[in-house]
Amino acid sequence: AQSVTQLDSQVPVFEEAPVELRCNYSSSVSVYLFWYVQYPNQGLQLLLKYLSGSTLVKGINGFEAEFNKSQTSFHLRKPSVHISDTAEYFCAVSDDGGATNKLIFGTGTLLAVQP
Amino acid sequence: EADIYQTPRYLVIGTGKKITLECSQTMGHDKMYWYQQDPGMELHLIHYSYGVNSTEKGDLSSESTVSRIRTEHFPLTLESARPSHTSQYLCASSDRAYGYTFGSGTRLTVV
Questions:
Q1: What is the CATH number assigned to the segment(s) B4-110?
Q2: Chain B interface test: which of A74, A91, A101 (most B C-beta within 10 Å)
Q3: From CA B37, how far away is CA A53, in angstroms rounded?
Q4: pLDDT, tens digit, for every residue of A24-33?
C-alpha cells in the first residue's frame, strides 16, 4: 500500500526566509503527487500537483515542488515566506495513479512564520 | 469561489441525536469522498463514492453512513451521535487525477 511521510510536524521560520517542507512517499507504481494547504477553520486548498512531465512544479502563492523519483520525494519550497503563509500543509499521493483516485495524505506540517 | 458546499459549518449536538452533514458539488464530478480530521490534523478517509448508487467504506472504520442518490449530493449521517464522533468532517470531489476540491468542512461537537 502507498504511504506518505512528512517528517516535520512543525517548521518555524522567520518572515522573508526560505522554507522547505519535506515529503517522502512509498509506491511501486507511477504516482500522482499533491500538496494542499489548510488555513485555520478552512478546508484544504490545492497548492500544486505532479502528474507527469517536468519534475519542477510551480503552484500558487509562490510555492514550488520538485519530484525526485530516485529519492521518492516531493519537497515543497518557497524562497521567501510571508506571515500569511502560516498554515498546515499536507502532502498526498494518489492511491493508484487515477483508477480510483483515492488520495493518501501525510500527517501534515505546520508552517509557523514569525515576524 | 467554492464549488463544493458543506453545511452546517459548525454543529453542537447532544448525545444520541441523529445528524446529517450535507455536501453538494456543482462540478459534475463522479467521485466524492468524506474525510475525518483529528484534532491533531491527520486526515482519515471514511467513505467514498464513484458515482450514483456507489458507496464504499474508507480506510478508517466509521459508524456513519452515506448515500449517493444524485451526482451532486453526498450526505453523511450519524444515527446516534456520541462524544467520540467529535471531529472535523471534510467532503471532497474529484475528476480523474486532477486532485480533489474540498469543502470548508463541518466541525462537529457532541456533548
A1: 2.60.40.10
A2: A101
A3: 32
A4: 998 767 788 9
